[in-house]
Structure formats: structure tokens, C-alpha cells
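Quiz preparation item.
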């Protein structure tokens, strides 16, 4: 088969730039910004977006999924338990029953399908973007201050841009970087971020949902960031609490948005 492909270089650039500028103009003001596209962040994005909430997910790396991809120590599987298995089943993820009430899932299939689910629900995911600060007005978090991860890695001093949001979710995992930034830059708020404790899977899993909450007006924590913000245990390669935490933070924000109407 003889196919001739015709393309002008300028048209490639024009098409990309036109779409990019339209996209940026559309997301300068959203309902919710989720910082971190790991398991809890992607789950929250899906459940918010499918209810018509305008959701933007910002991920510093060029891929989403957080620490899921590597499974346990590079073996490409993760585990979940009830009732979190239903969240993965809803996303079309195949599960294999294992001992101890656990289900095993493919560590590549999980983030791929969760990401697609969030996008199909209407969430926008941007990679290669860092949140370096927060917009703080009248004692409420009102958005994020963003820059290119490549610019940060290069060490260039280049001013950022901003995105306004009704609510911001710290889903940055072990670092709880958004909450830490708020605490570090605004010491008068007396916010303490003790960081996570060593691994105790059952304790860590059960504390995740308790710690998933609005930690400061306009700022929610979910996933491992919620345990880090409260000094709770880490869990290892069991992810059930992470998905349930993402769903819970979506429900909490949906309730807040409902009450604002």
C-alpha cells in the first residue's frame, strides 16, 4: 500500500499552540484543583468530574499513577481489600482473589484505567506541572501557584502562573508537599505536618479515611498525604485505603459545593 502523507511544519505548531492556549484559558478558573495524580487523586477526580464538577489534576511527572506502576518492589502487582475492590471493578480492572481477604491487580492496568476513567468523566490531567505555592486570601486557600517542572529542575528563576479554584486537594503522597508549603510559608497559621510514621499496614489503612478531611479552609488532604499530615503509618503495596480516601474526599467536596448553591 502506497500512502503519501502531507504535512506542513508550521501547521503542526499552529495546531498544538491553538489547542494549548484554548485549554489554558479554560482552566484558569476551576471548581477543584487536585495536586497529584496518584491513586487517591485519580479516584477523587473521577468521582468529582462525573458529577459535573470542573476538575483539574496537576502532576509534576510526565506520567500519572504515582507509585502504583512499580507494584511491590518492582513486581508488577498491587493488592486491595474490600470494599475498595468495588472502585477498581467499576473502572473495569481485573482482580484475582488472594489469601487474607486481599485481591491482586496488575500495577500497570490499574493507573491506566483509573486515568482513563477520570478523563472520560471530564477531568483534565496536566503532567509536567508543579504547584510551588497556594493562593491564600482571607484565611482561605483559593487556588494554586504553578510552574513547569522542567523549569524547576533546571533551576531557573522564572515567575509562575496561577489557577483559581474553590477547593484544592493535596494528593501528593508521602511528601504532603502542598500542606507543607502552606505551613512553611505561613507560620502564623500554626499548621504542623508531622510526616508519616514507619510501616504498619492495618493501622495505616484504617487511619487514611479518618485523616481524609478539610485540613484548612479550602484545602483538603487525601491518600498518603492525609496520613503524612497527621503523623500516621504508611502501608506499603496495599492500596484499598487510597482509593476509598479519594472517593471520600470527592464526597466531602461535593457536599460543600452543594451547600454553596
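Solution:
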Amino acid at each position: 500500500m502506497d500512502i503519501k502523507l502531507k504535512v506542513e511544519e508550521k501547521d503542526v505548531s499552529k495546531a498544538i499552540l491553538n489547542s494549548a492556549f484554548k485549554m489554558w484559558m479554560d482552566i484558569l478558573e476551576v471548581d477543584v484543583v487536585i495536586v497529584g495524580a496518584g491513586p487517591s487523586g485519580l479516584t477523587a477526580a473521577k468521582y468529582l468530574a462525573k458529577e459535573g464538577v470542573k476538575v483539574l489534576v496537576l502532576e509534576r511527572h510526565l506520567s500519572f499513577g504515582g507509585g502504583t506502576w512499580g507494584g511491590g518492589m518492582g513486581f508488577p502487582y498491587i493488592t486491595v481489600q474490600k470494599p475498595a475492590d468495588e472502585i477498581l471493578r467499576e473502572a473495569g480492572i481485573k482482580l484475582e482473589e488472594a489469601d487474607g481477604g486481599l485481591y491482586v491487580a496488575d500495577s500497570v492496568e490499574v493507573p491506566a484505567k483509573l486515568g482513563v476513567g477520570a478523563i472520560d468523566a471530564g477531568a483534565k490531567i496536566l503532567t509536567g506541572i508543579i504547584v510551588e505555592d497556594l493562593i491564600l486570601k482571607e484565611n482561605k486557600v483559593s487556588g494554586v501557584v504553578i510552574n513547569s517542572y522542567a523549569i524547576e529542575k533546571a533551576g531557573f528563576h522564572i515567575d509562575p502562573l496561577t489557577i483559581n479554584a474553590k477547593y484544592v486537594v493535596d494528593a501528593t503522597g508521602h511528601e504532603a508537599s502542598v500542606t507543607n508549603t502552606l505551613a512553611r510559608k505561613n507560620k502564623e497559621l500554626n499548621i504542623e505536618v508531622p510526616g508519616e510514621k514507619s510501616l504498619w499496614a492495618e493501622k495505616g489503612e484504617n487511619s487514611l479515611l479518618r485523616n481524609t478531611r478539610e485540613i484548612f479552609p479550602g484545602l483538603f488532604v487525601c491518600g498518603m498525604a492525609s496520613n503524612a499530615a497527621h503523623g500516621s503509618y504508611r502501608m506499603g503495596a496495599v492500596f484499598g485505603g487510597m482509593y476509598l480516601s479519594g472517593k471520600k474526599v470527592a464526597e466531602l467536596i461535593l457536599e460543600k459545593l452543594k451547600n454553596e448553591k
